[in-house]
Amino acid sequence: MRHEDLTPPTSRPGPRRRPVFAAAALAGLCLTAAGCAGDGGQSPGSASGPASAASSPSPAQSSAPTPSDSASASSSAKPLPRGPLTGRTVVIDPGHNPGNVEHTREINAQVDMGNGRKECDTTGTATNSGYAEARFTLDVSRRLRTLLEAQGAKVVLTQDGDRPFGPCVDERARIGNKAQADAVVSVHADGSATGNRGFHVILPAAVNGDGADTAKIVAPSRELGVRIAGNFVRVTGSAPSNYIGDDTGLDTRDDLGGLNLSTVPKVFIECGNMRDPKDAALLTSADWRQKAALGIAEGIGSYLKR
Question: Which of 4, 102, 149, 270 is catalytic?
Answer without folding.
Answer: 270
